[in-house]
Write a structure and sequence with these properties.
Oxidized Rhodanese, domain 1; about 25% helix; 4 helices; two-stranded parallel sheet; five-stranded parallel beta sheet; alpha/beta
Length: about 190
């Protein structure tokens, strides 16, 4: 008998399986620091130092190849200690075609290894040009892209766009999505 295992998001307050949350008229104010918990909740309407864009603006940048898109949605790892007969099925992720997926980089606090992974990913996305426009997104009502965009600003990237509607808004507008794989971590392993 073969045991089947399905990927489950074990991320506090963030679940791909959650129904879409709708924005409320009351958006929270921009915090002084990073959001540290409850990542799947209404986010501010602003991000100091970044340009906030809607789906139309994101689609324009994408069709003109005017920016590099970075997906900050977390990626659940394969659980350790699975029985040899277990079948592991990852949760699929479709993102905006051509995006670089840097999972786990939108948490409020990052381990040194994850911060190094983020820096390396930004270097790849920008070809070392900190003036190159970068668009950060994940899902609607998700702080992961807000935190990642803020972190990129603090690392000296000058042209940061934040797309808070993420793949939810993109798909609702009928724009294409593509199967995604995370950017490999050190040693070539996917996160």
């Amino acid at each position: 008998m073969i045991a089947a295992v399905t990927a489950v998001m074990l991320i506090p307050s963030l679940s791909i399986a959650d129904p879409l949350m709708t924005a409320t008229p009351e958006t929270p104010p921009e915090p002084d620091g990073y959001r540290m918990d409850a990542y799947r909740a209404p986010a501010p309407a602003t991000l100091k130092g970044a340009t906030v864009i809607d789906t139309s603006g994101a689609f324009d940048l994408w069709t003109r190849h005017a920016a590099v898109f970075i997906d900050a949605l977390p990626h659940p790892p394969k659980p350790g200690g699975l029985p040899k007969t277990a079948v592991w099925r990852e949760t699929p992720r479709d993102n905006i075609p051509g995006s670089l997926w840097l999972p786990d980089t939108g948490y409020g606090a990052l381990a040194d290894v994850t911060l190094a992974y983020f820096r390396k990913g930004l270097e790849k996305a920008s070809n070392g040009d900190r003036q190159r426009p970068l668009v950060f997104y994940c899902l609607r009502n998700c702080w992961m892209s807000w935190n990642a965009a803020r972190r990129a600003l603090e690392l000296g990237y000058a042209h940061i766009y934040w797309y808070p509607e993420g793949t939810d808004g993109w798909a609702a507008a009928g724009h294409p999505l593509a199967a995604a794989r995370p950017e490999p971590r050190a040693g070539g392993a996917a996160p």
